[in-house]
Model the fold of this input.
Amino acid sequence: MENKKIAVFPGSFDPLTIGHKSIVLRALTLFDEIVVLIGINPTKKPMFSLEQRIEWCTAAFKDYTNVKVCMFNGLTIDFCKSIGAKYIIRGLRGSNDFEYENMINHANKIMCGKDNTIETIYFITDNEYVGISSSVVREIYKHNGDISSLVPIGVNLPKKEKTFENF
Done:
């Protein structure tokens, strides 16, 4: 397919949540291929290894031949250029997300130069997923809470032993 519409969905996915998966599945109606791009961000200290996050994303999208999982160490815009992607997908849970994502969008436009060939497409998070983020899932997991309803099938976090401390 010569004019294939390729979109990149970047994130740390530490871990992938049902909100992330929902955005990818909704975006599949608009794009021929979506690349779930697990970025390596030196300013973040992930809880889970890169290999584990790749495994989870691959498992979550195993039934979707037009969803690929990749990792990249660098700028998302450079990755997009390298694979011919013309779109970046971003999810928005609220106005704070929009402010942050809009700043990145403007920086990407500057880096694209005059051609401005890479567009950012925002997906408003479905109501039932607004309170779900990777950081919320990590916090619940850290305290031995049940996160099974917050992550897609295939995202199997290691079991932790329950510990209770005396106060």
Summary: The chain has one domain: 6-142. Residues 27 and 154 are 20 Å apart (CA to CA). The two ends are 63 Å apart (CA to CA). Helices lie at 18-27, 50-60, 76-83, 95-112, 134-142.
